């Protein structure tokens, strides 16, 4: 196996030579542990160092396995577009893991399963932000939540009081389940999206409970939207293969992945704006720039806390490295999105970049996120309302006092205290 070139020693928390039994030093220092940092206010210094010195580098994952970490835009895009790197097979038994699975292995390739079951058209229609009344609902809901924040002032936790309920409400509306269901499904997500080195007992308990709850909603006369449409398919002989468990899995996974992704990005977009007041003031004073501003926030934000995993299905040459079949490859999105070879002066917030939309925050290739337009609309409307209603929005604590969640698929602060 080809070994990637070395990098500067402080990449690893422990770079002193390991000592073998008998006191002899091991010439192979420990691999860098990945992820590098959970702090969402700054890019880990290791990112640029790796990209420059070894854009394909061996690291040690949370699960304790070895993986290739890819950090340049060109090579990250190559992995995402190359069918020889598989998402589905990262859940196969015995393969190197990024972290322990918290969902059933067969659910890892969720959109592939949806397509295989003949449900892709219904799901894509539900995720369309141009669905009748959806953007009006989002705007009204954003105003409702701001009303509550102002009434409860003078400070608020913007993540808990706005980002999460706004996103959860949107997904309840898309699924066509009562808004009162949001807290029940939300309470599972802190465990469902953990990055743990070993299986998490609560994950299976929550999964079984949520599947049973969503399955029961299939027979609820108040259910409409996507889940109502899926429930009606059970009476169609052409869809006799659809079990209640399969349909409930669609609802549970769309709610969980959708809420974590959209609320996580919105939270981190706000963290960026609140710690970069020039960018905040630009979007506040020029609301016509919020659309392209969201695209640039997608590029510079650090909400993806780990990396996008793929398993090599055959031997592949990746840059200067030979990746062997069966090895784990991790696509470092923040490395790609901040690569100066692709985005000149990458740390500058520039809503006029010609290629901002080339970022990899929605993935790429066959597993490009199907809810990209919805995610953009969700964030754009939220920022329009927040910056209009709360023009002096600011952190209520020093940025250094934000507490960052660890061992999670998204970088998020536990709380986002703000004043206005």
Automatic annotation (TrEMBL):
Pfam families: p450. The lineage of its organism: Bacteria, Bacillati, Actinomycetota, Actinomycetes, Kitasatosporales. GO terms for molecular function: heme binding; iron ion binding; monooxygenase activity; oxidoreductase activity, acting on paired donors, with incorporation or reduction of molecular oxygen. Belongs to the cytochrome P450 family. The chain crosses the membrane at residues 246-274. InterPro entries: Cyt_P450, Cyt_P450_CS, Cyt_P450_sf. Residues 1-30 are annotated as: Disordered. This is Cytochrome P450 121. Keywords: Heme, Iron, Membrane, Metal-binding, Monooxygenase, Oxidoreductase, Transmembrane, Transmembrane helix. The keyword Transcription does not apply. The keyword Heme applies.
